Amino acid sequence: MRIFTPLTEQTVSALKCGTNVLLNGVIYTARDAAHKKMVEALAAGEDLPFDPQGQVIYFVGPTPAPPGRIIGSAGPTTSGRMDAYSPILLKKGLRGMIGKGPLSAEVIQTIKETGSVYFGTIGGAGALLSTCIKKAEVIAYPELGPEAIRRLEVKDLPAVVLVDCYGADLYELGRAKYRIS
Question: Which of 5, 17, 80, 122 is the Cys-Cys partner for 164 at CB 3.0 to 4.6 Å?
Fold first, then answer.
């Protein structure tokens, strides 16, 4: 299923746990340090570096771009490292997150409450994923190096719905499928 950002309520409500998607449009990058800075900015009454309404954050710290390339390897980082910050950003209008690994029960509950979605991409496939990035620019926190916030334009970035807006969690459903009673 090909989907486009910013994500709408209609798009997100049609996505079911386990659905393969191809993401297109603008997404933003942020890892631990950038998330911390964004949450601190909100606490201080400041604006975020981008309007989160309907947007998607990719938990990635890309490597430097080799000569002739837009960006270096851009594979996902472990999403649980952002669990302390994700509910705050989801409540501010963030509609999607891309990473790898399970999320906390609190983040999954917030995904349900806010009508959001969590996508997964394949760790270790960062070089391949980077070919889906057509434009990249640092928009905030350049002092963080690879963890700076970037605005990416992506075409057909492959992902799978790991947690849908109804709270179905592919990590739990997958384990249950093979659990012996």
Answer: 17
Q: Which two tokens stand for residue 72?
A: 């270096």
What mean pLDDT is predicted for residues 48-71? 95
Tokens found for residue 142: 């350049």
Q: What does the block give as tokens for 122?
A: 């394949």
Nearest to 92 by CA among 138, 43, 32: 43
Residue-wise pLDDT for 74-120, tens only, equals: 999 999 999 999 999 999 999 999 999 999 999 999 999 999 999 99
Closest CA to 98 of 38, 37, 25: 25
Active site residue 35: yes
Helix (H, G, I), strand (E, B) or coil at 1: coil
Q: How many CA atoms lie less than 13 Å away from 57 in the CB half-sphere?
A: 30
Contact 29, 58 (CB under 8 A): yes
Catalytic residue of the set 31, 35, 37, 150 = 35
d(CA 101, CA 95) in angstroms, rounded, equals 18
What domains can be seen in the chain, in order of their start residue? 2-178 (3.20.130.10)
